[in-house]
Design a protein that fits this description.
Layout lengths: L5 H40 L5 H10 L12 E6 L4 E4 L7 H8 L6 E6 L5 E10 L2 E8 L1 H53 L13 H54 L5 H30 L8 E4 H14 L3 E6 L3 E4 L1 H18 L4 E7 L2 E5 L32 H11 L3 E6 L5 E6 L7 H7 L1
Parallel strand pairs: 7-9
Antiparallel strand pairs: 1-2, 1-5, 3-4, 4-5, 6-8, 9-10, 10-12, 11-12
Helix pairs in contact: 1-4, 5-6, 7-8, 8-9
């Protein structure tokens, strides 16, 4: 069965289950009918006899009487083993001898045969002291009824099995139609790489949930591929400028050396400084691209750490770069990557220092909320929704150094830690970045001890 298709296996299982149920019901019906017929025959045999019946039985078995042949039979069994019968005599057994001497509380019911070999139903009771009577009725009509019933039930069972096979095939076709659609869609995507393929979702059962999950998966893959294309396109566009500048400056240096016309020392120094700046910009851009490219594939372990300690480390690095950072940090413990979170905080501080006069930045951590405020010109309201997009730069900041990826890296790191980040204009001027991270003011081990 494992080698067949899912439809054939489901059809066989449904057919087998229904067939077993039909056969069991037919067998149970036959057994119940057999029990009822035998009980009815026993009741017929046990019907009270009249005094005339008893006198006739005694006279018939007396020495001067002459036994007569009847369709039904009754046999008197004496303690010495003698028998006298009216009708076809019944073969007595040791079980019948128990009713000769002592009356039994219940009659003895059994199947037996008469002297001519015909099957009969026998009921043995105590007739008188030292005498038992074996009353018998022919069994052929019961057997005939059971035989006809078995034939009818067998025919019905066969038709039921055929109907079950048809029903199983119909059910499997109907139940597996969404699976077939899903299979065709997967095969189509595997052949064409068309991630825009969608499966119609009908109902709310497991198949519908599977279809919805598949559609969500293909939509996520399509979005990921589109973001990848956009990242590659934007990266190529951003790399083109420093590479073009580097090639132009290096060409000037090579031409001056090849033609023997040396550049003015001042011009040459400016040219080399420009080359160095372009290399620095290119290095920053490549590092930011690598940081973003890690995405969900970052396998750096997430552990419990003091976020205030991460912020302190980022502040120290920012101060080495010339930023004037004022801090007010409260304890807060989160689960995340120390390197990613430190990079995110440092990017926020660097971005704020870039626009703040004198590089003055205010950093505050209170109850899991980190705010980084500058005192610069702020942003236009229509620019705020785009600040965390990759390669997006404010028109007023395009002359400043940067790759346009710093805040995108912040958004990615915060999302990995399960938090949220946003940027808004601060009251009184400037901009304020707010980062919210889930956590506790104490380490879990410390909070357990306090309990």
């Amino acid at each position: 069965m494992r080698g067949g298709s899912l439809r054939s296996r489901l059809t066989i299982l449904v057919t087998a289950a229904v067939a077993v149920a039909i056969v069991l019901c037919a067998a149970l019906s036959w057994l119940v009918l057999q029990d009822r017929l035998i009980r009815q025959l026993d009741q017929t045999i046990l019907e009270p006899e009249s005094d005339k019946d008893r006198e006739f039985l005694v006279k018939a078995c007396s020495p001067e009487g002459s036994p007569q042949q009847f369709h039904d039979s009754a046999t008197l069994l004496y303690s010495d083993g003698r028998t006298c019968s009216i009708g076809p005599p019944v073969v007595a057994t040791q079980e019948d001898m128990a009713a000769v001497e002592h009356p039994l509380p219940d009659a003895i019911f059994r199947n037996g045969v008469n002297r001519v070999g015909k099957p009969v139903r026998v009921v043995t009771t105590n007739f008188a002291p030292g005498v038992a009577v074996l009353e018998a009725r022919p069994f052929y009509h019961v057997n005939a009824t059971l035989r006809d019933t078995a034939l009818a039930l067998g025919t019905i069972s066969a038709l039921g099995v055929l109907g079950a096979a048809w029903a199983g095939l119909t059910i499997s076709r109907t139940a597996l139609r969404p699976v077939q659609q899903l299979t065709k869609a997967v095969e189509h995507i595997a052949q064409t790489e068309d991630l825009d393929t969608r499966i119609p979702v009908e109902g709310s059962d497991e198949i519908a949930r599977l279809s919805s999950s598949f559609n969500a998966m293909t939509a996520a893959l399509a979005g990921s591929r589109e973001r990848q294309r956009q990242l590659v396109g934007d990266a190529g566009h951003e790399l083109r400028t420093p590479l073009t500048t580097l090639r132009t400056n290096i060409d000037l240096l090579l031409r001056s050396e090849q033609t023997g016309r040396s550049l003015d020392p001042g011009a040459k120094e400016r040219l080399l400084v420009n080359v160095k700046a372009q290399f620095a910009e290119l290095s920053t851009l490549v590092a930011d691209l690598l940081q973003l490219a890690r995405g969900d594939h970052d396998h750096e372990p997430h552990v419990e750490l003091g976020f205030h300690e991460v912020v302190t480390a980022a502040v120290e690095r920012a101060r080495l770069r010339g930023a004037d950072v004022v801090t007010e940090l409260g304890p807060w413990y989160v689960v995340g990557s120390a390197a990613s979170l430190e990079r995110a905080v440092l990017n926020l501080i660097d971005n704020a220092a870039k626009f703040s006069p004198g590089g003055r930045v205010e950093v505050r951590l209170d109850g899991g909320r980190l705010t980084v405020r500058d005192h610069g010109p702020g942003l236009n309201e229509d620019e705020l929704p785009h600040v965390f997009e990759r390669f997006w730069r404010s028109p007023s900041a395009r002359a400043l150094p940067g790759s346009g990826l710093g805040l995108a890296i912040v958004a990615q790191a915060v999302a990995e830690a399960g938090g949220q980040v946003r940027l808004a204009n601060a009251p009184g001027g400037g901009a304020v970045a707010t980062m919210d991270l889930p956590g506790t003011p104490m380490r879990n081990s410390e909070s357990d001890k306090s309990r």
